[in-house]
Specification:
Oligomer: single chain
Number of strands: 8
Strand order of the largest sheet: 1-2-3-4-5-6-7-8
Shape: globular
Radius of gyration: 20 Å
Order of helices and strands: EHEHHEHEHEHEHHEHEHH
Bound molecules: erythose-4-phosphate
Largest sheet: 8 strands, parallel, barrel
Helix content: 40-55%
Length: about 220
């Protein structure tokens, strides 16, 4: 499973990218709006963080014809491998068909139902992004929806992966990790909670204390 950061706070993304084994960054218009800056300024800095081969996902906002034009500008300014995020609507499906035929990396987004996932895959998307927590909030089962989409791809021989999004807790991420979906994009606050655990901290503190008792305060394996 690819592990992706769902944020555009440059300092936070830089910190998480440095510490955790991440494969890329996803953004959407709302995430970019939080920066209050020019989108391309922010996205260029995110591209620098993930490097030329890291995944960067950028969403378009117009109708089919406009989406195709937006995709060209996004790829010109941020690299041809940039994933163009396209909402899974009828207009979006039309744009996906055109862009996938041109070899553009597409992430089908705003997915709330398995049928959206199926149609996005048929239209050539590389990823389909179900919004796990938002689905839960509607009274449905976000994890099950993501698993159903994963199964639909497998059972139909579709070359598309689930990129689950909209997580609000570690359990949601873990359930889909166990299932072996293609990718999860997770906000920085949730990432920071994934392995935050008093038992871990306490175990490490005890190791440090015991070692200090053996070789002296502040000494490490380099200087004893
Ligand atoms: C990612 O592709 C989605 O845009 C994002 O994860 C939605 O997350 P939210 O429900 O936390 O806004």
């Amino acid at each position: 499973m690819k592990f992706i950061i769902d944020d555009a706070d440059i300092e936070k993304v830089r910190e998480i990218w440095d510490l955790y084994p991440c494969d890329g960054v996803t953004t959407n218009p709302s995430i970019l709006a939080k920066s209050g800056r020019n989108p391309y300024e922010v996205l260029t800095e995110l591209r620098e963080i993930v490097g030329k081969d890291g995944e960067l996902h950028v969403q378009v906002v117009s109708n089919a014809e406009g989406m195709v034009k937006e995709a060209a500008v996004i790829r010109e300014r941020l690299g041809e491998n940039t994933f163009v995020k396209i909402p899974t609507t009828p207009q979006g499906l039309k744009a996906m068909k055109i862009l996938s035929a041109q070899g553009v990396n597409i992430t089908a987004t705003a997915i709330y139902t398995p049928m959206q996932g199926f149609l996005a895959a048929k239209a050539g998307a590389k990823y389909a992004a179900p919004y796990v927590n938002r689905i839960d909030n509607m009274g449905y089962d976000g994890i099950k929806t993501a698993m159903d989409i994963h199964d639909i791809f497998e059972n139909n021989g579709l070359n598309t992966e689930v990129l689950a999004a909209s997580f609000k807790n570690s359990q949601q991420v873990l359930e889909l990790t166990k299932y072996g979906i293609g990718a999860a994009t997770v906000g920085t606050a949730v990432i920071e909670g994934l392995i935050k655990n008093a038992a871990i901290t306490s175990a490490i503190d005890a190791f440090v204390d015991d070692f200090a008792g053996l070789v002296g305060e502040g000494k490490t394996m380099m200087d004893c």
